[in-house]
Design goal:
- Chains A, B: Residues 443-520 form the AMP-binding enzyme C-terminal domain.
- Chains A, B: It comes from Oxyplasma meridianum.
- The structure is a homodimer.
- Chain A folds into two domains: 10-414, 3-Layer(aba) Sandwich (Rossmann fold); 431-528, ANL, C-terminal domain (GMP Synthetase, Chain A, domain 3, 2-Layer Sandwich), CATH 3.30.300.30.
- Helix content of chain A is 31%, strand content 25%.
- Chain A has 18 helices and 26 strands.
- In chain A, the strands form six sheets. A seven-stranded mixed beta sheet of chain A has the order 7-6-5-3-4-8-9, with helices on both faces. A five-stranded mixed beta sheet of chain A has the order 12-13-14-15-16, with helices on both faces. In chain A, strands 17, 18, 19, 20 and 21 form a five-stranded antiparallel beta sheet that branches.
- In chain A, helix 1 (10-19) runs parallel beside helix 8 (231-237), helix 7 packs across helix 8 and helix 9 (250-260) runs parallel beside helix 11.
Chain lengths: 530, 530
């Protein structure tokens, strides 16, 4: 009992850095450091933070694109005993201020280009004790005080001993991108992150991802967004080459994929869409045979098929800010492995099956598990070792989130005969028509495969008779023909796969969709313009 | 903080059985059950044990070959709150009695063929409250009282609720096969086993094992021996088809490998040797392209090369009873992946690199890490989350095991430039000659590749001038020629890879080696006959 081993984030580095000291962490292919050097910088930074005055439990915020410095903070801040606050830099300024103030951020690591955003409202940020500023040029702006140069901290080798940390100490915090109401804060302990990392690496070894240390990863999930789905931790534990894209810019991303020979990525559907529709994409992507995990929105069949033509293996993943995030992946279970490849496609785009250690149920209003009939809709509820204990300073929200020891996701899903779940709606997006749910995600999935359709969103319009009726919004190519789309859907009605009653009353072509800060289609403005 | 998730063994089943209900557990290919059925039987058994009177912390022993019933006990006993004692059935009867009495076994699950062994000394086992007996025929012997039929327990569906278990509760206990002195007891908590399982599955996804749920595993490490290296837990977590060999018998094993299409196994070198030298082996093994983890003894180059000619990928693993057991695996790190296949062979047979979460050092007498020079010998010391806290009722042994927060393995090793360790000796097997170590394992490795040599063991003979000098014992084929072997070794001396001073003074041909209960060559009788 005396030889307690705390599950703290530094333990990810122990075996990995020792075994792969010369493995590479690359920033846009223009700056590279080895794991060994990275490890040194992380320990220097953690030690420097403490020397600067950071105390156990203090919140240290980061405002940055996806850079190697951000990756350093992912380790160094929790290792110093402090809490890493990954600020959503896609928020409007007032929400950036709101979340930083709500989180009680005391220290802020900030990239030079975000300094003006803060400096013009300096007085608001009086709760910040110290700004830790970096610039790729080495010369940092002096408009924020008191400030210190990040490079000084990370190069200070006069290290002090890091504190012992209990595994249940909070390591990270961030805010949901909630499309309704104010963002809600969630937080995760060292133990929760470590178990998430272990379970994810354990499950991802299954086909078709078959994760292993030969893979070169470039995550395209912003680092401010739910631990970049855990990849800063999982990939380093596996000893993989890690490529950071910086600010997302499609030509730079494609160039970097080519130069660094990236084999693995993860992203929301809209980023995948932007990548594969880029004119230069086909040549670059076809060479790399990439594997891409798509989450944060449904992986529509049309998009998966387009990606397939470029030699890209896609699988779906599902989780949320409250769940660290991974709950399910559409990796193949025994029954799917035994199918022929054509049939497997259906499973790649399902929301997946629970990963190791995840206890997941889909329950009806009566609290009972729904049958595995691909039809009956229920809410996903979960127990895993990596769920946020609460919304920060929000006991009412917390009470709704946790009921009877289960975290209630608010996501509606059906279960198929093999246990794969398919999310059919967010509870708040669901269309209730004539007393029944019309699953918008199923409609969006089918419409996405019609000729000429690029992106699609279905929302409910108030209706006197039915309560609500579905309206489909689409962005299109010149090939688009409304009658063809309707015929396309009719074939699914005839095949008995969708109910006639589900078909949208109306299709509207729009030039583009408004996206949320995490790149999902924002349905709010669509509903407001009905 | 209220939503605590305990890392208990039942959690392995949760996602895995849900996702793969029809995956198969096969006993010698003659009895098969699905994961779903297995899960039911496990829950029935756990519940029945409690109804029988088993209380939290009670020791429940198992005496069995590697059967599906044993696998059920691996889960059900800890899930009932009790402690699984995996009794070494290869011990002589007096040690079986000694360890069961030392462990305070209260309930015993026993296969019919082991009943006579106990029944003839019934009086000695008065500490046992109940014998839980099974027979493949269904008819159990009545010579042990009070007895109950295992089948009754496992089929009792009138389940009671299982108790909540704290993850730090002891789940398993067993005794070392120590070749000197009395066996020592070690024990492991639910948490330790769960973290071992997660880290092992995470690491084994690397090449050349590339573990995934498509693999069909048949472990050939006895289930009484260090959790069968964790495979009863890792393989089920991964949702793999699991094949149990029963009592080890080479023809049956080969037949089962063929019938069940086994792709993955793990075993000690002597079992691998027996398998590949069987006349029927080549055809069967060549078809399956098996991957085999070899541990519990050094994987000699000659054996690895022979296996390779049958299309078998071998890697080495290292651990001990005190470490649950896995510490290192010779899976490929970045530098090895980049090598050509020929060069990689050297790394497959090294003792390997630490797996995730393992902090491993090789330290000299001065307590400092040895250089990565493949020459300097030090002791392996470790910190991981799955080390036994103590030897049961042995504070003196415990004190020697744990010093300054590090578990001292007593194994001597060198480190190469890429961080791979190679064990050169057990501390107690080491030959000290002229004040310097002669690494017997390196000699055994080289001798094993000489023509005509089957198995080899090098031991130290007392010597007036040098203290000790090495003597080599070999089993041989008709091709064996002593002078050829000496010439073979001379080439390594000339190449500067071994010191002339290490060469054995003498070679002795023996008919066969005495093996320990876990199948390793027992050096004790060799030393006694010098």
């Amino acid at each position: 009992m005396e030889h307690r081993y705390e599950l703290t984030i530094d333990k990810i580095l122990t075996a990995s850095v020792r075994n792969n000291p010369d493995q590479i962490i690359s920033y846009q292919g223009k700056e590279s450091i080895t794991y060994e050097k990275f490890n040194e910088r992380v320990y220097n930074l953690a030690s420097s933070l403490i020397k600067l005055g950071v105390q156990k439990g203090d919140k240290v915020a980061v405002l940055d694109w996806d850079t190697n410095r951000y990756l350093e903070a992912y380790y160094a801040v929790p290792m110093s005993g402090a809490v890493l606050h990954t600020v959503n830099i896609r928020y409007p300024p007032e929400l950036i201020y709101y979340t930083m103030q709500h989180a009680d951020d005391r220290y802020v690591i900030i990239r030079d280009e975000f300094v003006p955003l803060v400096a013009q409202n300096k007085a608001l940020f009086s709760f910040v004790k110290k700004w830790i500023i970096y610039s790729e040029t080495g010369k940092v702006p002096e408009t924020l005080e008191p400030g210190v140069n990040y490079d000084t901290l990370v190069n200070d080798e006069a290290r002090i001993k890091l504190p012992e940390i209990n595994e249940n100490s909070i390591a990270t915090t961030f805010y949901t991108s909630g499309t309704t109401g104010l963002p809600k804060g969630v937080s995760f302990s060292h133990r929760q992150i470590m178990l998430h990392t272990l379970a994810a690496t354990s499950t991802l070894s299954d086909p078709p991802i078959s994760l292993n240390s030969k893979d070169v990863i470039m995550p395209l999930v912003p680092m401010f967004h739910v631990h970049s789905w855990g990849m800063p931790y999982t990939s380093i534990m596996k000893g993989m080459k890690y490529v950071l894209p910086g600010r997302y810019d499609v030509p730079t991303i494609l160039k970097t994929i080519k130069q660094e020979k990236v084999t693995l990525s993860a992203m929301v559907p809209s980023i995948l869409y932007m990548l594969i529709t880029n004119p230069d994409a086909s040549k670059i992507l076809a060479d790399n045979h990439m594997k891409i995990i798509v989450g944060g929105g449904t992986l529509l069949r049309g998009l998966a098929e387009k990606a397939r033509t470029l030699g890209i293996e896609t699988i779906a993943g599902y989780g949320m800010s409250e769940t660290a995030p991974i709950l399910t992946l559409s990796t193949f279970t025994k029954r799917i492995i035994e199918m022929d490849d054509q049939k497997r496609t259906d499973y790649r785009i399902k929301t997946g099956v629970p990963i190791s250690l995840v206890d997941l149920r889909v329950v009806g209003k009566d609290g009972k598990d729904v049958p595995r009939d691909s039809k009956t809709i229920g809410e996903i509820i979960v127990k895993t070792p990596w769920l946020t204990d609460e919304y920060v300073k929000d006991s009412e929200g917390t009470e709704k989130l946790w009921k009877n020891g289960w975290l209630h996701t608010g996501d509606l899903a059906v279960l198929d005969e093999y246990g794969y779940i398919s999310i059919v709606d967010r509870e708040r997006d669901a269309i209730k028509s004539g007393g029944e749910f019309i699953p918008t995600l199923i409609l969006e999935d089918l419409i996405s495969t019609a000729p000429g359709v690029n992106e699609v969103a279905v929302v409910g319009k108030k209706d006197e008779k039915w309560g609500e009726r579905p309206i489909a919004f689409v962005t299109v190519t010149p090939k688009f023909n409304m009658e063809e789309v309707k015929k396309h859907l009719d074939t699914y009605v005839e095949a008995g796969r969708v109910s006639k009653f589900w078909l949208p009353d109306e299709y509207r072509v729009v030039k583009e969709f408004v996206k949320t800060s995490t790149g999902k289609i924002d349905k709010k403005p669509l509903r407001e313009n009905l």
